Amino acid sequence: MNHQQYLNKSGFIHTIFTLCILLSAIPCILHAQSANSDTIQVPTVYQFDIDTEIFPSAWRKTNRAIDEAESINANYIILRLNTYGGLVDMADSIRSKLLKTQIPTIVFIDNNAASAGALISLACDSIYMQRGAQIGAATVVNQTGEQMPDKYQSYMRATMRSTAEAKGRDPMIAEAMVDDRIAIKGVIDTGKTLTFTTQEAIANGYCEGEFTSVKDIIAHLNASDYKMVKYKASPMESVINFLLHPMVSGLLLMMIMGGIYFELQTPGLGFPIAAALIGAVLYFAPNYLEGLAQNWEIILFIVGIILLALELFVIPGFGVAGISGLLLMISSLVLSLLRNNYFDFSLTGTSEALQALITVAIPFMLVLTGLVFLGQRLFDTPALKKITLESTQQSSDGYSVEEKTLAQYIGKNGFAATVLRPSGKVKINEEMFDAITEGEWINSGDGIVVKNYRGSYLIVQPS
Asked: Which residues on adjacent β-strands are paired with residue 135?
């Protein structure tokens, strides 16, 4: 083998050897890139807050928040909680959702986690509390603070106990938060319902630490660099919260009552009752979603509308049907603000019932006051002049001797140009007159006879 052949052969071998080294290094390079990628990726923390009573809105928020956290593969879910409690069934739904998720759950008790809030806290993997916070007092009570019958307490005791067991906490302590008959040495005596302060909760394994903010908790988790995703209310939730605002609810009630009033004054016009119905839908819908308005209460309102419609368009006069319809509608508006179960008001306190009555009564009084002071001006607008009494009897029109002018129509026949209930307009010999009955309801188009006159009005009766 000459020198040139040797060089060619050795160069070929060197090339093959280099390629082998490069190929063997590829897995190492990929692994290094993967390791580098892992170091760049930061944990995702999903946070949502509950700082209201535990009602359906809190359950909807929790359900949506956990679904969103799971969809983005969050590493932690942090619930910032501050509540005095609420509905047990809603708290149980929240508890179940927290127990089922595979993402580590952390609750930060910002101030209070009482009653239903205690149950929700126990369903989380870790509990952190702020200085001065409290957890416990999970006895089921009504709105006046009185304990509910033992069937409610029994369910709550079992739920608290099983939730504590699922998260490795002392179940007897959880049960003592419900039942004042339980005594735990060094913790609680009988006759007292257990509530922990922050330091007491830490000492008894019901809190992992005292912190002042969510940021401090995340730092405690050794997540110095992290991505925070916070819950944002959906457009529907924003609309519901807007409609539930006391001022908006009051305006809707005024819209309902004002619409009914004007429809009673001008039956058949249409838009007043349409406005009342729209106001009713906007009033009942958010209360229904919040678990306040029940199906039967909404049906009660609809029955009231039907009775009122019968009174307006079918039954002459204004009697039993009309009054019953109004009472049913007002009762429905009040009941839809109470947490009653049909006629069981054990969860409704006197103060809550009084507040509901005031909430409905104030708009009603404002509507009446507004109608007294503004009613005439409203009927003076061009759009409503055709349906109101608008006689302007000037001397230039021959009304200087009014009594003699109207007296000549006594005994004359004509017909009702509008509904008389009891006032309206009649037509006699192609002339239009303001008229009033003595209590009868005369439909538009029905025949009338003039019985007498009073001032500028003809007193008529059905012919």
From this structure: 113, 196
Highest-scoring range by mean pLDDT, 309-318, 349-358, 384-393: 349-358
- The pLDDT, as a whole number, for residue 178 is 94
- What percent of the chain clears pLDDT 90, i.e. is strictly above it? 33
User: CA dist 341 to 153, 269, 291, Å?
Assistant: 18, 38, 10
pLDDT digits (tens, 9 = 90+) for 405-463: 788 888 889 999 888 877 788 999 888 888 888 777 888 888 999 998 877 788 898 88
Specify whether the CB–CB gap between 252 and 97 falls below 8 A: no
Cα four-point dihedral sign 185, 190, 192, 195: positive
The pLDDT value given to residue 51 = 93
pLDDT reading at 277 higher than 80: yes
Residue 145: predicted pLDDT: 66
d(CA 430, CA 427): 6
Tokens of residue 441, six digits: 């309801």
| Torsion sign across C-alpha atoms 307, 308, 310, 311 | positive
How much is the pTM?
Answer: 0.63
Q: Distance between CA atoms of 262 and 271, rounded to whole angstroms? A: 9
Supply φ then ψ for residue 144, to 5 degrees.
Answer: -90, 0
